[in-house]
Amino acid sequence: MVKARKYVVKKHFEGVPKRDDFEIVEYDLPPVQNGEILVKTEWVAVDPYQRAYNQRYPVPFDQFGYQIGVVEDSKDPRYPVGTRVVSHKGWCDYSVMNANVSNSPADVVYKAPELKGLSPSLAIGAVGMPGATAYFGFLELCQPKSGETVVVTGAAGAVGSLVGQIAKIKGCRVIGFAGSDDKVNWLVKELGFDHAFNYKTTDIRKVLKEAAPKGVDCYFDNVGGEMSSIIMSQMNHYGRVSVCGSISAYNETSLPTAPIVQVDIVMKELKVEGFLVPRWINRWPEAFADLTKWIKSGQIKVKEHVTEGFDKIYDAFVGMLAGDNTGKSVVKIT
Length: 334
Prior knowledge:
Shape: globular
Largest sheet: 7 strands, mixed
Radius of gyration: 20 Å
């Protein structure tokens, strides 16, 4: 019998998630049945949606999330021992899974994409769900054209940093907003953003007018709140807004207020669309192929914020929500 550990959510989060909202449970895994595989987890992802979706499930529930691991025992010929698989099994160190059961995106199991020598951790980052989010959320909804001006909030995070670089590949001018001077410097000096600003220390309305005197064509929104209202007020006619998230509000116990945006949406005939990336799940391999190619060629630079240790997943999660990470926050299971 294989002994496994997992994080169980025993209390719904109120404000910032607390350590005692979770319990680490040790248990015996059942024997592997026909059609199943036993996977030893190598890397676990911590992502903003894990905070946003917390209220969706009755407690207690196993903490969900993307992970990549190696098959150690198999009764599914498609996944021989040694195969790397990506799943949504969450914060656990071993799991038994059935790749034939896929009633929803939460059940997803697939072979890790061919990473051509890159770190396996990228399969839950830039060449995983966050990469697909950036790729489809930006290209499909914003439909960028060369020469247009693109604004990205949460620009130094796992998704935002990719969106900005994809926009540069497509010939756009890119302006990013992030939460520290170090992140701003990284965006401009290493990732090639045309402008980047620390939203905590600048007058957003003023710097955006200076950086985009002809207005904004595309806005990739990761944060919501007042900053988004300001950016939308400076968009051009027929501008496109892709709404990915609202991390500024995830830890709030009551929704913050922000200036209304409907006047700008109507008068400028803006297209504003929210999305969930499983919409394109059958096309994820298309994104993974392009992203891998761009990373290998140096057109996209990837940064990971690595935490080591199963016992440190909570710390990585709360740190990510506080903006401690630059790039994708991942945990190496040791």
